Amino acid sequence: MTGKLLATSVLALGVMTAASAPALAHHGNAAYENKITEFKNAKVTKVSWANPHALVDFDATDAKGKPVHMVVETAAPQALRLIGWTKTSLVPGDVITVRMYVAKTGNPVGRLNKIILADGSELHDTQLGGDAGGKSRYDPDADTK
Amino acid sequence: MRNSILASLAAVAALLAVAYVADPAAQGRQGQGGQRITGEGFVFGGVPKMPNPPGPAPKRDLSGAWVGPQNNKADPAPPMTPAGQAVFKERRGYGAATQLARGGPEQQPGESNDPFITCDPLGFPRNLLAHAISSRGGMLFGSAPNRMLIAYEQQRIWREIFMDGRALPKQVDVRGAPESRYYGYSAGHWENDNTLVIETTGVDERAWLDEAGHPLSSSAHITERYTRPDQYNLQLMVTVDDPKYYTKPWTWMRANFYWMKAQEFSESFCVPSEAIEYRDSLAKPSGIKIQ
Q1: Nearest Cα to A72, choosing from A140, A22, A136, A129?
Q2: Domains in chain A, start-ordered, CATH in brackets?
Q3: Is the reported ipTM for this assembly greater than 0.95?
Q4: Contact across the interface for B281 and A71, Cβ inside 8 Å
Q5: Which member of A42, B170, B216, B266 has the greatest number of CB atoms within 10 A?
Q6: For A82-137, what is each residue's pLDDT tens digit?
Q7: Tens digit of each residue's pLDDT (9 = 90 or more) over A19-69
Q8: Which residues of A fall within a CB distance of 8 Å from B45?
Q9: Nearest residue of A to residue B10, measured between CA atoms
């Protein structure tokens, strides 16, 4: 009886802690470069906390020192909430560092890797938010495994 | 003996719970709002574990809020009939699901004609996948006279499941028959004290079965089987039988749902104006030329 009960408990725990399957990408990422481009001292001008993807608009300078206005997409709010974002994590006027995969078209748009806030804390994308680069996925549980 | 073991397990669970509160290092990641949302103590991101071992399931009762699907292990769609292939050929999804379903390299998303791009209804059973916006969502079982209600967090829509033994439409959209509907017509019954079976017919053919664009005809018969093994777990198996478009029935979903500790929903809509802004300010300039 004891063994059976303990086995049942362990099984139940196993079921409840089963790792979640990664969400399917809402759309593919073939449109974006494979390398990360970083924008320091980027100033947030607009945040669209919206479906199907949240958007962050910001002003920055490119590698040649030329002013640029960029729009970067990330996951849906529903998915971002699960990894620590809120609607007010970013507000217009915030000065941040943006790491992103820019569009192959050359237009000033792209997909987020992560944002580094002024206090050093980070906001990752889900789909391409991994610190390993190479369009790796962000695993929020990595530091607890 | 049994009681003492259960008491010991409860004591361990209580100690662990106290440890979580007392030891910030054990609390995993903090959300920007200061809420712990993942790591130890969670089934997965955003879904807290409930006390273990769970209590028994109440009899013939699913009322309350659940979150899922998780760990979906569906069977692949069977070969389509010529009629099904003809519809599928016109569907162009825009994601990883499409790549998997069609077995080829990811197509340029600009070709997509997924009706959800501009927030047309997901319809049943695609709404069960929930991943049109994220990968899972809340689902609330409630009741009204003669029927059970299921409300869904994503899109804030609901279904009525009649429990009074009524027959479902055998045909729709022909003279003398009811109209097809995005969420069809549903009737349910309890197979036993822990298993609810829901049958659905009469769905609207404009809705896609999944993100890949698999078709579903208005003559399809969809069966959901909800089994609640204990207080905090719910298993769902969905079979699709659509002889017009597929050569045989198959298990379209086999997944877990979990009791939502907070029993509260967020609001998650596909808003047409936001979807259009996304299309015009991000997708098109990126080369994602969604229609």
Answers
A1: A129
A2: 30-144 (2.40.50)
A3: no
A4: yes
A5: B216
A6: 888 999 999 999 999 999 999 999 999 999 999 999 999 999 998 899 999 999 98
A7: 233 333 456 788 899 999 999 999 999 999 998 899 999 999 999 999 999
A8: 20, 82-83, 140-141
A9: A9
